[in-house]
Amino acid sequence: MKARNPGEKLHLNLFVMGNGHHRAAWRHPDSCAERLGDIAYYESLARIAERGKLDALFFADGMSVGSVEDGFHWHLEPLTALSAMSRATRRIGLISTISSTFYTPFHAARLVGSLDHISGGRVGWNVVTSMFDSEARNHGYAAMPPHAERYARAEEFVQTVLALWDSWSDDAIERDRQGRYADPDKVRQIDHHGEHFLVDGPLNLPRPPQGNPVLVQAGASSQGRDLAARYAEAIYAVAYDLEAAQAYYRDIKSRVAAAGRTAPVPILPGLVTYVGSTMEEARAKQRELDDCLPVEASLRQLGLFIEQDCSGWDLDAPVPSLPPLAEFRGPQGRYATILRIVETEQPTLRELLGRLAAGGGHCTMIGTPESIADEMERWFHGRGADGFNLMPPSLPSGIEDFVDQVVPELQRRGLFREEYEAATLRGHFGLERPAG
Amino acid sequence: MKARNPGEKLHLNLFVMGNGHHRAAWRHPDSCAERLGDIAYYESLARIAERGKLDALFFADGMSVGSVEDGFHWHLEPLTALSAMSRATRRIGLISTISSTFYTPFHAARLVGSLDHISGGRVGWNVVTSMFDSEARNHGYAAMPPHAERYARAEEFVQTVLALWDSWSDDAIERDRQGRYADPDKVRQIDHHGEHFLVDGPLNLPRPPQGNPVLVQAGASSQGRDLAARYAEAIYAVAYDLEAAQAYYRDIKSRVAAAGRTAPVPILPGLVTYVGSTMEEARAKQRELDDCLPVEASLRQLGLFIEQDCSGWDLDAPVPSLPPLAEFRGPQGRYATILRIVETEQPTLRELLGRLAAGGGHCTMIGTPESIADEMERWFHGRGADGFNLMPPSLPSGIEDFVDQVVPELQRRGLFREEYEAATLRGHFGLERPAG
Ligand SMILES: Cc1cc2nc3c(=O)[nH]c(=O)nc-3n(C[C@H](O)[C@H](O)[C@H](O)COP(=O)(O)O)c2cc1C
Ligand SMILES: Cc1cc2nc3c(=O)[nH]c(=O)nc-3n(C[C@H](O)[C@H](O)[C@H](O)COP(=O)(O)O)c2cc1C
Fold first, then answer.
1. What is the ipTM, given to two decimal places?
2. Which of A224, A333, A418, B201 has the most crowded CB, counting CB atoms within 10 A?
C-alpha cells in the first residue's frame, strides 16, 4: 500500500438531506421540519459547511415522491436550490445529481454550465441513471429501461455534455465594440448524431469557468464502476468498514488506471457520525434520534428485509441470531448489511433499527473528535478513502458538531486544509482545468 | 369602450435582455458587455426594477445560439439565474420562459414550482412552443415540429403541469412528529396518460406558494391566442401603435370571455422607451445607440428584409418610398413593420436602421417623463394595454431612466403603485390564488 504524500489532505463533502440522514431526524423535537421548503435553511447549511472549509456539498435527486408519511426529501429541486446557495457562499463546491435517463444532454450541459458561471466555477454534476419505475412513469416511460441500456445512454449522454461544454473556446468572446462580439470559428457545432441523441450544438452558453464542471459518479455495479473509471473526477462510495472500502478503492483505482487516466479521482465513502465530547455523549445523541423512530413501522420494515415476523422481539435485548446469507432467499444486499451489523456490533434490536434508519450500509463512526479523527485517518492512510461524504444523521446539528469539533482536530493533524487554497471545485479536488 | 375603474393601475414588467433591446447596445462604450455572464449584473437589474415597484421581470429563452458575432443573449440559463435573483430581491415577480416543445411537463412543473418555493410565491412561466430548427436539432428532432402540433403538445403540457402543481393539497403536510409527515390521501397521482405525455405523478414537491405559479403567454397566431385565452394569466403582446394594440386587446379579451374565464388577464404590449428631460435629450440617447450600429451589416440585413439593394442609399436622407405590401413577394410581417415606420415616422435611413435594431415591431416612445406618461395613459385608458412589457434599449441605463423618471410621474398621476401591496406575483397582477 503506497504511503500518502506528506501534506496530502482529506476531501470532505456534505451530503445535504432534509433534516438529516437518520430517517427519524424530522421527528426530533428540535428538528427544522418546518423549514424543509425554506431556501434560507439550505443556505445556512451551506454556510456551516463553508465555515468548515469543506470541499463541497451535494444535493441528491430523485424523480418521484417516495414515502410522504415517513418524511419526504424533495422540497426543492437541486439546481434551483444550489443557485441560491451559491450566492450565500463564496468558496464551497456545489454538486447536483442530474439523471441521464430523464434529462436531455443539452438541458444538463446548460443548467450545470449556467450554475458554474453563476457560482464562479464551483459546480459538480453527480451522474446517475436512476432506479425506480415510479420515476420512469413521470417521464413518459411505462417502466425503467434495463440497467445496461441506462448505462449505455449515460455514457453517450456524458460524452455529449462534455462536447457541448467544449463547443465554445475559452477565447471565443472578443467583445470588440467596433467589430464582433465573438469569433464564430471558436463557437462550433458538435454535430452529435448518436444512438440515443441528436445534438447539433453549439451550447448557448460560453465555456464554463471550470472548463468542465466536475463529474461525480456513484456506480456500484460493474457498468457503473466502468463509467466512473472513464469519466468521473470524484466518486461517492458505500463502504460499511475499512476492508470493504479498501476493496472498492483498489478496484476503482485500477479501473481508472486501465482507462488510461492519471487524474486523482478522489473516492469518498459515505460517513455517518455521532460526535460527543465523550463516548457517552455521542451514544446519547444516537439514542435520542433512535428513540424518535416509530417502532411498529420500523419493525414491520425490518420484518420485510429479513423475511421474519419480529413484532414480538424485545427491543432492548440483543438481536436474535439470523440465518446465514446463503440460506436467505430475499434481496441479498440489505440482508448482508443487516448480518454485518448484527455480527460486528452485537446491537440491541432498538440499536439495529437505528443503524438501519441512518445510512445502513455506510460506515458509522460514534465517538469523540479524537476517536473519529483516528478512524478517519486509518481509512485515509489505509487507502480506503481519499476523503468522506459526510451524512450527518441530523441537520443542522450533525454538521455543526462535525465542523466545530472534528474539523479542528483534523486540521491539527495536518489532515485537512486550514483555509481554502483554490477558488473552484476542481481546485479543491486537486483536478486540472481541461484545456478544451 | 369601458372606462377604467377609479384606482385601477398599470402593470409593469421589465423584459431583461443582455445589454438592452437595442441590438448595438453592447457596442456602446459605457455598456456592461463585460458582465453578461456575471450574475451580480442581473441581480442589480432586478434591484433597480424592484426599486421601481415593477410587477415582475422576465427572462426570455431560446435553445440555440443565434448570432455570436453581433452580440449573444444566453449567457445564463433563466431558471438558475432567476433563483439567484430571487435572493437579491423581496417582492418583484420573476418570470421565465420554458419551452413546451423541449422540456417534459414534470421537469417544468418541478423547476418552476421549486423556484416558487424559493422566491416565496413570485414566479411566472412564459409558455412558448419555440420556433427554430436549430433549437429542435439540439433536442433530438431533425427539424421543428409543425406549428399546429407544437400547440397541441403545448396545451397537453400545460394541463399536465397544472395537474402536477395540484397533486399536493395545501394541507397535505402535517409534520406530526409522533405521527406522519404528510397525509398520503392528500398527495395524489395524476395518472395523466395522454397523446404526448405519460405522467403518473404526484409531483415530488409540495404545492407551490401561489398554488399555480402565474402562466404567461405571448402567442400571436390564432392557436397561440386561443392557448393564451384558455390558460394565460398575463399576456405579452406586440403592438406598433395604439390602434394595433386595441385590435389585439379586443380580440384577446373576447377569446378569454368565450373561454368562460373572468380572471383579469393583464395584456402587456412591449414598449421601447428613450427618456430625457427634454425631447432633444431623449433623441440624443437614441442617436447615440443608433450610431453604434455597424452600418454595412445593418444595410445588408435591411436589403434582405425589403429585397432591394440599399447599400448606395444616403444614411442621413429620408428612406426612399417603398413598394406597397401587396406588391412584396417576401416575408410579409417584417416588411409591413418597415412600411409602417417609414410612413408614420418619415425616418432617415439611419433612423430606420436604429428603429429596426430596437424592438422593431413593438411600440417606441421617445420623450420626457411627462410625454411618455401621457402616451402610456392614452394606451391604458384607450384599452390598448393593461400595462407594459418594458424593453429598454440599453441596460442598466434604460431601466434606471424609466424607474427614476417615468415611474414617479405615473405614481403622481395615480396610475402606478407607490408601494407593493402584495407579496406574490399573483397579488401584483390582481389574480386569485387557485383553490386547487
Ligand atoms: C452517495 C450516493 C449518492 C447517490 N445519489 C443518487 C441520486 O441522487 N439519485 C439517484 O438516482 N441515485 C443516486 N445514487 C445511486 C447511484 O447512482 C447508483 O445508481 C447506485 O449506487 C447503484 O449502482 P449502479 O447504478 O451501478 O447499479 C447515489 C449513490 C450513492 C452511494
Ligand atoms: C414579449 C415576447 C416574448 C417572447 N419570448 C419568447 C421566448 O422567450 N422564447 C420563445 O421561443 N419565444 C418567445 N416569444 C414568441 C412567442 O412565444 C410566439 O411564438 C410568437 O409570438 C409567435 O406566435 P405564435 O407562436 O402564436 O405563432 C415571445 C414573444 C413576445 C411577444
1. 0.96
2. B201
